[in-house]
Amino acid sequence: MVSFVAASYASLPYIMLTWCTITTTALKPFAIVILGLSGAAGLLLHPLFPVPAIFASLFLALSTWNKVQLKSLVCVLAIVPLLSVLPNLFWILPSTHYSGWSDGNLSPFQKTVDINIIFSEAFGRIEGAAREARINLFIWFCVIWAVIYSPNPLYRRIVFGFVFAALAMIIFAAISAISPTLGTLQPNRQSAAAYLLLTIPAGIGIASIIRAPAKSGLAFAGAKISLVLVLSVFTFLGLELKNELSAASTPHYGRPSPEVRGPGDITSWIADWLKQNTTADARILFETSSDRITDGAHAAGYLARVSDREFIGGSYVYMHHAGFWDGHLFGQPISRFSVETFSEQLDLYNIGWIVAHSPASQAYLESHPGVQEQARHGPVAIYKVKREHNYFLEGSGKVIQRKTNRIDLDELSGTAVILKYHYVDGLITEPSADMEPVMLPNDPQPFIFLLAPPKRLSIIFP
Known about the structure:
Radius of gyration: 28 Å
Structural class: alpha+beta
Number of helices: 16
Number of strands: 16
Distance between the termini: 27 Å
Shape: globular
């Protein structure tokens, strides 16, 4: 989220550099190289960096077409994408292995389809999927001044280029997620970048207010009233910025300066308990929270890291079939599971301990005969699953080490071995062994199947 904001700001000078390059008559190769490498840096900063750059560059070129040099435009279109993409292939190519990259299921966030978002955000409302700033209406006010009283025809064409680019992005942000593939781009967030684009014509509009012609009484009077409004808004925003950057005990939109903190009481207690009372022989089922019940944070990833335990379900709400959040497990309310079905799921994923915070989850777990409460702190309770722990559904062996993208196995036995680990395209084994996916009941993802494996084996995602 932080890098997206930085990338959105970085797109503004990049857009103007692109426009200057395609409108210059004396094109220099150095300018093309700088543009390409700048694009590579922006793409590395955030994968969505190209979106505002493409929208704005396209509409700026169209609105100022009489200044565009065809040779320069062709060079930019042919060379800059290559220079931008090639240095980023080291992360682009591995990303294509992940399921959901092309079908829109990579994440469920920032992809609401609702045309009303456009109007809510224009008025700066923060409701539903609309998450815009209250300055938006003022931005449109200044943009209108730019459209009516731009200092010269070229400025007016630039204003129209940015306005139509922003409008296209705002519409794109509101409705494009109707396409699953476009939904992968998390389009809702692009409206913020669109309003950032509008700051360029808004700045021209403020200059127009200051320079409003005195020969027209109505325009002159309107300019003076508008100037008072501009100064008032800037004063208010300046005070808001000063307060936001301070460590004062006043209301803040974000976290007061220095904007960082360590783990809170609940998070620290969970981490300590897991390190002292669990082993690596089984996984931990951790109930995540849309309300960030663990000290105002999504702490599952942090807890897995510091406790050196395998967690199941991912570090964020909603995203995985095996997720556990706010009384929902494996895509349905936990209360719908029978004792037998829930026990089968505990065995399928080798779950040894459960951390739960919601009343619904705690009530269900306390009634389950195969689960026993071990500790409680604040809203969080930890339960132990009363069963033998192992990572093998068929065959036997030991998991002697697991790291990111790597599992090391030893003492493998059996002509067919099925691991309680999911299979993904691109996995390899060292030494080479027959490995393939196998589907099991109650899970949409395949598991790892090994045919007559050697005694010692490593499974790697390169």
